[in-house]
Amino acid sequence: MTCLRKGEFLMTAADMTPYGKEAAQVADRVAARYAEVAPAHQDSQIAVIERLLKRLPRGARVLDAGCGTGRPTCAQLCAGGGLDVTGIDVSEAMLAAARANVPEARFLLVDLLGEQATGLGTFDAVVSFFCLMNLPEPVFVSALARFASLARPDGAVIVGVPERPGETPVEGLYGTYHPPRCTRQDLRRRAGLAGLTVEEIEVRPGTGIMGAEEDHLFLHARPASSPDRSG
Ligand SMILES: C[S@@+](CC[C@H](N)C(=O)[O-])C[C@H]1O[C@@H](n2cnc3c(N)ncnc32)[C@H](O)[C@@H]1O
Known about the structure:
The protein is globular. The longest helix is centred in the N-terminal third of the chain and has 38 residues, at 18-55. It starts with a strand and ends in an 8-residue tail after the last strand. It is 34% helix and 29% strand. The protein contains five helices and eleven strands. By secondary structure, it is of the alpha/beta class. α1 (18-55) runs parallel beside α3 (92-101). The site of S-adenosylmethionine has 23 residues, from α1 and β4.
């Protein structure tokens, strides 16, 4: 087995799913430019984390899946102190930036879709922003099911993706591409299939990586077996 990284977790080639490998190749290539172009694109998630911070008790464990450079999410989670923050990613280049940007958090080379992620323990909140949007529906559902299993019974799962009506090409950092469809109805249905109870699908006006206007969807959910917090 090829050892890709040493640390608390030993990531081996066997632990990386085909989707994780492909994502790592793309992210390793864009990591340097990402920090420069992403801030406008990431604006929408800041308010979502502000909202989460209000409900997390001191000492809460938070997982950021597909943490990228650690900014803004892990940095924002660590800013007030008192939270135990772990970021996972498949890209060594993104993780190197994250470790430099947010030394207070723990960053691990882990594929969220792989078996290794099951050893991370459980979390009061699992968040994932702009990480799942290129996955075909069954794999997207598997990723949400993984988040459901990593969240404590009364924990929160928050997932952000751009809304994709389908058919429309999207301008990325290295040319246009055709991402899979993901509407707000798709996100709600996929969450149900993954064993999550949807509290809300929040829609925020956002900006694409190359500056185009787009809607950003934020799923707020909890594991289906958890206590009802609505009332
Ligand atoms: C577009 S970036 C977003 C980064 C960050 N969440 C943000 O909001 O800026 C997507 C990140 O997800 C990571 N990623 C994609 N698939 C992954 C997987 N299966 N497991 C862990 N990380 C993954 C990529 O390596 C990349 O760093």
